[in-house]
Task: structure prediction
Amino acid sequence: MLDLRFIRQNVDTVRKAIKAKNEKADIDKIIQFDEDKRKMQFEFDRMRAEQNRVSQEIPQLKKAGRDVSQLLADMSTIARKIKDISQDLLEISDRLNSELLKVPNIPAPDVPVGNSSENRLIREWGKPKHFPFTPRDHLELAEMNGFLDFKRAAKISGSGFSAYTDLGAKLERSLINFMIDFHVKNHGYREISLPVMVKREAMIGTGQLPKLEEDMYLIEADDLFLVPTAEVSMTNFHTGEIIPWQNLPLQYVSYSPCFRREAGSYGKETKGLQRLHQFNKVEMVRFVHPEKSYDILEEMVRDAEEIIRELGLHYRIMCLATGDLSFASAKTYDIEVWSPGSAKYLEVSSISNFESFQARRASLRFRDTDDKVKFLHTLNGSGVATPRTFIALLETWQNKDGSIDFPPCLQQYLN
RNA sequence: GGAGAGUUGCCGGAGCGGUUGAACGGGGCGGUCUCGAAAACCGUUGUGGGUUUACGCCUACCCAGGGUUCGAAUCCCUGACUCUCCGCCA
Result:
């Protein structure tokens, strides 16, 4: 959510951002509602002051033996008016707020403008591995090694679900353990494990709602959502708190299953592990001082890429263009690993700076050195998602006979 | 699922329907004292909104939403959450 005062003073900037992100928030409505609301608030305050003043006089007049019946009658009228106004005030606040929740975050100034074709290559590591034979894709390799069983997964849950079997299951678990341990040991994150079912407010807090309700799994009986990423639970972990600046940054790493309905994306990348309704991911979240968030964004990219390097995978880093940015993000880097089997890059990590956008929605504040309470900045990044990493790992480390070698960093977990 | 208890400021803990933004205690911060520290003493210590060049002033907020009243932290209703016990269960 953006600061209303900011919107008021930077209408054009906000309009541009809405357009760049292909969103449809109504700024004119917001400006109008805001104006109406402040007018009502002023009127309400004025009448309330009057009411408070007289209400304090009444007992004194009574004590002095004066007749207050006329006064009481007058006040009764005022009380009714106040009730009417506060009703209107509530209504306009609701309308303003729900409109405000539709306004996306503003892209950072150095983000390329345009759709995904404008995504900017930042750097790459390694190069596509050359094989002296035709590399197999992960499905074939998984089949040969008995790592996956999609048919049976479908029996249980339908399409879009995976089953890892035997060494495949252990490999996936090893990936998760390796990543978490690595981030804790080398990058100073605290490991946490949080609920994967969350309240509606939490989903609004991080910005999935109201926009993406269609893509979320909802448990209607309890109005709880299955998280599409651990980001939701982690970012809302400190909701409503005012954190002393000395305690910043706070940085957490957590593994969680992620649930996505992927409504409307059927037929896209549906093969194997590429796009699933449920998958596992290690996620990093940081709560930081606003002045440092962009440095930390770079730092988090390095945190994530180190993992992939340890796994011996070729990758590249892209800076997403405005049209490809998520609703809540100001700037996002994607890390894409090379899949020799399909000869293309697969997104395994997305690292974003949300600036104060989520902080404002979820009420995440800190007390700065000047003793003022301010919104902090939040960032998150996958560190990283397991299915596509699993794909690239099998395909990159395959041998001619279909057997797989494993990178050294996983040995201790696999043995 | 059944039965009860609770939700007040940074924390503990009061609070007859009318100067209660909230007693009292603790903590924090500032000061006096001290070579320094401790102790003692004094002062201060919430978050939004509106208005003002500024000091300030007004307003809202004692879990949330309604209601009663001229006036509600205080009375009534509904809901959320927490806790205890019973049942059930991984």
Summary: Residues 38, 41-42, 44-46, 48-49, 51-52, 54-56, 58-60, 68, 71-76, 78-79, 242, 365, 373 of chain A lie near RNA strand B (CB under 10 Å from a C1'). Chain A has a mean pLDDT of 92.
